[in-house]
Amino acid sequence: MTTLAMTRATLLKDLRMEWRSKDAINSMLFFALLVVVIFSFAFNPTAEESRRIAGGLVWVAFLFAAVVALNQTWARELRNQVLDAYRVSPAPPNALFLAKAIGNFLFVVVLEALMTPLFVVFYDLRSIGPVWQLVVVALLGTWALVVNGTFFAALSIRTRSREIMLPLILFPISIPALLAMVDATTSILTGEASPDFWIKMLAVYDVVFTAVCLLLFESVLNAE
Amino acid sequence: MTITAECNPAGAEVPSSSPAIVLENLVKFFGRFAAIRGISATFSAGRLYVVLGDNGAGKSTLLRIVAGLMEPSQGSFSLLGVSKVREVAHRVGYMGHAPLLYDELGGMENLRYFSGLYGLHDDNVCQKAMQMVGLDPELSRRVGQYSQGMRQRLSLARAVLHDPELILLDEPFSNVDLRSAREMAAVLGHVRDLGKTIFVVTHQAPLMAGIADEFVHMAAGQIVARDPSARELDPSGSKVGTAQ
């Protein structure tokens, strides 16, 4: 079976299971909603201030919320040791990784689509730069978060306190991507600088880390 | 019974005279504890082996090594003539101690997904596998709502649905009622008769008496005895035809 076909089958299976349980999406939404509301109470920014801080605020909220989903990624595979059934099969390991990463990407994108209107309302956000660039940053940034997150979640599945382990490994390695996401978003919202450099940096980060994760995933999957 | 040589996607059958598994001085350490202590053995194709032993004897560890889920610390082994398990993964079926099934999916949904891992996309294969273990393919209930016995049966169906030449089963009868366990044991005997090699790790030796070709006794990480007269035993453990 080809990697593409297996990725599709695993992705559809994961989406079906998430549709039934709604574990990841509900916990992510609830968490992100809390962050939006609490931050809006903690700060009372003007529209100008909002544009300056929103990049950091939005991405930190999405990063924390994504970790909630990423922790769930492999939990289903560990229950009943289903991962062993995949490991003994001839299916390509990278298909499993890609399906998980794409699944997480879709969950976080749905979260972003649902939360963005709330951010706009709560923080009175109006972008001075082109909005389509925000969409590009969101897609590249989200992939940067989930590709590493999916990989490190797999790396930590055999550790006892994996819920704590994941952010401890993921956050430091995501700093370059987070920096690029925040600066690109702030540049677009304020319209004061070009976000091109940060967008290119995000694209390079995505390519490099996707390649590294794909190269190493089989070893992680079969590690004892 | 769905398992036939003709529908085997893996290709040619292993001749029954050639060994299905060859173990050479296999050792497995967990930290400083040796779970497997230098096992060397050969197991022929087309036979049903029952691995017996107390808890901690190394039965499941040996099965996991052979299935490719664990690397041995020392020694080597070959499976169906090759030393890399991945190369023959499509010719091997494995049923673990845990059911290896998704609770959130139904029985057929589980089997459809797992058959896809082996490149099979025929619903008939999944339906026949379910029927073979005595489950109704129309059952819409999710696996999370199955009884333990039903899970075990479905797990067996998952392990054999791609028609493997070598079937590795870890405690297939645990939590299964006696009548169902006997039916499952009979199914395994029938599958062996079709030329498959089967390894069953179990504590319920009497169930396999008269069906198994050989009892393999393990203790303290070693094979301590092999009893090829297993098929001559009746379910009570006595030799068939001997006066009691």
Quick take:
The complex is a heterodimer of chains A (224) and B (244). With 224 residues, chain A is mainly α. Helices cover 83% and strands 0% of the residues of chain A.
Task: Describe the overall structure.
The complex is a heterodimer of chains A (224) and B (244). With 224 residues, chain A is an all-alpha fold. Chain A has helices at residues 3-21, 23-42, 47-73, 75-78, 82-87, 93-123, 131-155, 162-190, 196-221. Chain A has one domain (3-221). Chain B is an alpha/beta fold. Chain B has one domain: P-loop containing nucleotide triphosphate hydrolases (Rossmann fold, 3-Layer(aba) Sandwich), CATH 3.40.50. In chain B, 26% of the residues lie in helices and 25% in strands. In chain B, a hairpin with a 2-residue loop joins strand 8 (214-219) and strand 9. Chain B starts with 18 loop residues before the first strand and ends in a 17-residue tail after the last strand. Classes of the chains: A mainly alpha (224), B alpha/beta (244). At the A-B interface, helix 1 and helix 5 of A face helix 2 of B.
| Dominant shape of chain B | globular
Unreliable spans of chain A: none
The figure for the number of domains of chain A is 1
End-to-end separation of chain A: 26 Å
CATH topology term of chain B = Rossmann fold
Biggest protein-protein contact in the assembly: A-B, 24 and 28 residues
Which residue ranges of chain B are poorly predicted, with pLDDT under 50 across at least 5 consecutive positions?
Answer: 1-15, 239-244
* Distance separating the two termini of chain B: 36 Å
What is the β-strand count of chain A? 0
**How much of the polypeptide of chain B forms β-strand, as a percent range?**
25-35%
Q: Could you give me the name of the CATH homologous superfamily of chain B? A: P-loop containing nucleotide triphosphate hydrolases
Number of domains of chain B: 1
What is the radius of gyration of chain B computed over CA atoms, rounded to a whole number of angstroms? 17 Å
What is the N-to-C order of secondary-structure elements of chain A (H for helix, E for strand)? HHHHHHHHH
Major β-sheet profile of chain A: none
Element pattern of chain B in H and E? EEEHEEHHHEHEHEE
Q: How many alpha or pi helices of chain A?
A: 9
Beta-strand segment tally of chain B: 9
Quaternary structure state of the chains depicted: heterodimer
